[in-house]
Amino acid sequence: MLKNRRQSVNRPPTPDLTDDRAKVPTLQEVINIKLIESGEKEQLMELVREKLTDCGWKDEMETIVRAYIKKQGRNNVTLDELVRVITPKGRASIPDSIKAELLQRIRTFLVSAAL
Amino acid sequence: NMFFVMLVIFPMSIVVCVQLALHVFGDLLDSIIVDVASECHRIARLGLERKLDEEEEELRLSAQARARIADPSNNVEANGKYVVDIFGQTHPPVANEIFDCMNCGRSIMAGRFAPHLEKCMGKGRKARLKATRSSTAAQNRYSRGSPVSTYSPYSSTASINRLSNGNPRVATGECSNGTVEEP
Lengths: 115, 183
What we know:
Chain A is an all-alpha fold. Chain A is built from 5 helices and no strands.
């Protein structure tokens, strides 16, 4: 089927059905599963969202995005594009206090997950 | 879980722990960035910025109005014409727009329209006399002297009319075929 419109979000390719060997999960994957299963990931997300909204980071990002959209034309932007536009600035402009607090909490979780 | 136990024991575990924590944090951040971009993208593609602007304007105006009420320098005592509402407007005690009555065609002041309509459409004795010629005779037969006439509820119990909510019973004047309406 021909697609006339640009894809707005990149989808990862569907995994090949023939490649069915049992894969050893990486440490990161294992941690991720533990985070999700314990509910900690959800809590962390809410915490970060709240903190980033309160300190104005979210508004700053939205301003950048809106300026970009205005420049490009609102029907001429893909989600991937927007993500790429704000990712570097977004990562760099996280207030140190928030980053430190979150990292501390994650490390605590990792230790408790290991025991 | 031996894996984890080993991690805790070896000093390198600290480095790994920090790296893992950074990775987790980065994941969280990426998700949040995608959320922010996604929301802006949706709003842009659906053209919702106008609605957002309108909503903001509404909020601003209502905050302004509220501030005006709270301001003690505004005269809020009922002073006839000089009561100021939250938008800073004054209104006369009797609505003074003029328009034409759709029943009789006369020019009526809005604040006087309800009483006019009562008379014009049916409760008053004079209104009933505005009957068509064919029903006048029947009407006169009933209304002369008889206390329990078909129409006496209208004149003797004014309370009934006050209860009627704008659909007053039509006077016989409206029945062009001359039939008498039972209450």
